[in-house]
Amino acid sequence: MLKKECLEAIKKLLESLIILIVIPLAIVWDKLVAHNGWPYADIFKGGFIATLVIYAVYAGATILLPEKRDRAFEYLFSLPLTRSRIIMAKVLPRFVILAILLLLSAVFIGPELLAAGMIFIVLFFGAVSLSIAVNSVILNLIGVAFLFSAFLQCFNVLSYLLWKLGLKFPSELGSIFVQLCSALLLLIPLWLAFWSTFKKLDVKPIRLQMRTYYSILLPSLAGLVAFILLFYKKYMSWIMAGRR
Amino acid sequence: MIEIEGLSFSYGKTKIFRDFNLRIPKGQVCLITGINGVGKSTLLRLMAGVLRPAKGEIRFDPNMGADPRRKIGFISDVLSLYESLTIARAIDLHKSVYALPSFDDSLIRHAKIGRDQKIKELSTGQRTIFHLSLILSIEPEILLIDEIIHSIDAYLRKVFLEQIVQLLLKRPVTVVMVNVNFHDIEHLVERVILLKSGKIAVDENIEELKAKVKKIISGSRPEFLNILSQIDYSDHSEFYVYPYTDDLKEKIEGEIVDLNLTEIVSAFIGGEYA
Fold it and tell me: Which ipTM value was assigned to this complex?
């Protein structure tokens, strides 16, 4: 099972690396805009970050795709595998590749991207959590974009609240801590919704089995959005006052 | 052994089973039949553990271990497999999940299936044989077969059934089949269960069933018998009756004809549609 999922994860990585095809185009472009002083390194950096973003979302969004595409849930669920083992075998290889890409980014781009690693974890697990409800990768991407903006605004609001409470961190550590809190606020209900549905999933049409998923996901997201909106005005005034 | 107790199951608002009970002893070959949509395949999927009952329990022989699926072979009507895998990779996956040291691929080679072929490239018959060979590799104690063998060619069907016979000769395997080609399996089946509206309408040993279901060819309707279905001709009618007993023989005006399993099941199902 793990071997199959590893190969599947590598396949998704290779599909994501297609983005690197744009690099030769970027080189031509770089030559054209050379007079503007746009260096090749910046284009590579942009391409690498785009690859990371695409891989994180694509690997997460397609985690249940082989089962949905091949109608293989029946075979998978007839195997003597616990649901936790199935999900571990699916998530682990994809997550390990994401972690390797993040470490490579520290080498190629610099440690600042590693410090923002939580963003890619949010993208990946956000896409995984939505994959059970959404069949289309495009729809999943739209959902992840919404989740990501919720994550960013949650990060902003939490930064403001921590400042208001008088908590001060060295800037980078503080940023990672607030990223972690925002990610947990978003991902815990998402993962709970995904897992509580997946562990009881059977071969009935998925739409008949989504009640638990939506009953956890929708109130949690509504709560998070309400929390953001509650403090967003104050956060904006704080920003406008330039007190950050 | 399979023991179903107080089982309830529904698809959304459509109730399929309510407080359903059934016991199939170890080593019995059982045929489940009934009209389309009555829940035959659903019952098989519940036994295979790919559907979860809303209420009730399905128990297996305690010696099958903590996860009975390890010893259950299930061939569904949709032949669910990872279609994009090659045969070699699908075998690898199967071997790793069941921790099998080796895999006998003679049946696959016999069906002219190449190890580099993708599952989606196989014919229905080849996929059925491949699925069967996966199942046989785990030495199943329970075999659940949906009506898939209807759609495979005569030769591969023969191969399939020969494998089942070989398996049954080796050791006591509980086999539950749904609506498969009755003619092919008549010699294997020990028990027939007819489902009707989510309940068991008929549950008989095959020999007893054959003794109890008869065709009566007569010009007049035998009112004292329960008629399952009838076919009218210009000068006579054929009445399929159940339950028939030998002491009724003298009362019956007409010819009493024995039936094979196909005719018996058709009589019951015909009665459902009448």
Answer: 0.88
Q: Would you tell me the crossing angle of helices B124-137 and B87-98 to the nearest 10 degrees? A: 30
CB-CB: which of A3, A70, A74 is closest to B76? A74
Q: Which residue matches tokens 């109608």? A: A71
Nearest chain B residue to A202 by CA distance is B51
Helix A40-61 with A2-16: angle, nearest 10 deg: 140
Structure tokens at A69: 């595409």
Report the run of H or E that residue A6 belongs to, with start and end. helix A2-16
| Widest Cα–Cα separation across chain B | 67
Cα separation of the two ends of chain A:
49
Cβ contact B161:B185 at 8 Å:
yes
Q: Which secondary structure element, helix H or strand E, spans residue B144, and what is its range?
A: strand B142-145
Cα B243-B244-B245 angle, rounded to 5 deg: 120
Each residue's pLDDT tens digit, A192-234: 999 999 999 999 989 899 999 999 999 999 999 999 999 988 8
How many angstroms away from the CA of A203 is the closest CA of chain B?
Answer: 6
Residue with tokens 């089962």: A67
Instruction: For residue B53, give the 3-state DSSP assignment.
Output: coil
Whether the CB of B98 is below 8 Å from some CB of chain A: the reply is yes
